[in-house]
Every structure is written in C-alpha cells, then in structure tokens.
Amino acid sequence: MAKITILTGSGQYQDRWHDFTATGFRVAQVLQEAGHEVVLRALKPQGIVEELEDTDLLVVNSGFGEYTEVSDGPREEWDEAFAALRAYRARKAPILALHAASNSLDGLDEWHQWIGGEWVRGTSMHPPIGVSHVQVSDPDHPITAGFADFHPYDEMYSYLEAYPGSRVLLTHDYADLTHALVWTTEQDGARTVYDALGHGVQAFDTPERHELLRREVDWLLAE
C-alpha cells in the first residue's frame, strides 16, 4: 500500500472555474478503493513539508490563482514549501498532475519541466464542456495497453504544449487538429503523468476514468 498525497487547489492556487475540493475528494475515493493510503491537503504553504517526507506519490490538483500576478518568484511564505517540493523531486519520487495543474504553481519555476508540458496562456483553450471522444494514441504504453477510447463528460483541453520527450498517450480531435490530453515523462529516473481530464466530479463518474487513474498510479509507483 502506497501513501499518496493529494494537494488540491486553495487560496493562491484556487480559481473561480473549478471545485478542487470536490474533485480532490473524488480522486481520493477512487485511489482509496484501489487500496492506497490517501492524504488530502489544501495547497497552502503550511503542512507540505511534513506531509511530503514519507509520501510515495504526489498528486497535484490545482489551478491558476491570484498568486500568478506575482512575477518575481515565490512569496517568502512559499519558500519552505517549494523547497519541500524540490526535495521530493530530488529523491526521484513520482508526480501525477491533474487537469488545471498544467496552469499552476507559478513561482516554482521547474514545475512545467517536471510535468513535461504546460497550458500556454493566451493559446491553450477548451471548447464547451460536454460528452467528448477521448482516443488512445499510444496503445503500447503500460497505461494504455488494451485500453479503449471512451466518452467522458469533461472539458477537452486543446493547444496544450507537450514538451519534447513527453510521450502522448491519449488525445482528442478539435478544429481539425489532434490535441494531447494525457502524457508521461521520465527525467533522471523520475516519472510523471500529466492528465488533462477531470474538470468536475462528473468527469470521474465512468468506469474508464477510474481505470485510467488506477493505471496511471500503478505505472508511477512501479519500480
């Protein structure tokens, strides 16, 4: 049984578009049902240091908050928390970044490199939320081997930038283009999955979504 810590958006990393508390609880439920010990914490400076010391997998479920107005590095209160995140990363521990986390953690300059891509402000977008077609683009990866296309009720992020070296596993089509939704990256022995799905609780209501989360976590925790 692994210890999984979910840091869910609040305060400086909350936004008006997402109920991170609700989706954080839903993700925690799915992972607890898979047999893991799950700790759910608000993404605030307090408590991160102690929580990450014995965490096996970090899940970040947060967004683009007020903090992004600051352009000259982290506020002093975040120095220790960001140091703890860097220490976590330094021990090659894995990360699962969900949905709006591609547009989060301003002040932690390494964040987008860690997750292998980003939401490009002014370019990335999504069509109206609805039932969409998610397709497997890489059937050879352990996460998607034998996995079928599915149709969640969700936002389909579009025009994200997956960095060179990231391996795109799931995509969707919009405006005559194919757009990356889920990718993996491995850097210096550290595994990361970015999963753009998961706007609201309803996005986690399908068996396929549960299976995808379990597969992502299994791959991230594999030695």
Written overview of the protein:
There is one protein chain. With 223 residues, this protein is an alpha/beta fold. 23% of the residues lie in helices and 25% in strands. The longest helix is centred in the C-terminal third of the chain and has 15 residues, at 207-221. The protein is globular, with a radius of gyration of 16 Å.
Q: What best-fitting shape do the alpha-carbon axes yield?
A: globular
Radius of gyration of CA atoms, rounded to a whole number:
16 Å
| Rounded mean pLDDT score | 93
Q: What class, by secondary structure content?
A: alpha/beta
Distance between the termini: 14 Å
- Contiguous low-pLDDT stretches (5 residues minimum) are 67-72
The percent range for helix content is 10-25%
Element pattern in H and E: EHEHEHEHEEEEEEEEH
Order of adjacent strands in the largest pleated sheet: 2-1-3-4-12-11-10-7
Number of helix segments?
Answer: 5
Percent in strands: 25-35%
Q: Kindly state the number of beta strands.
A: 12
Specify the biggest β-sheet.
8 strands, mixed
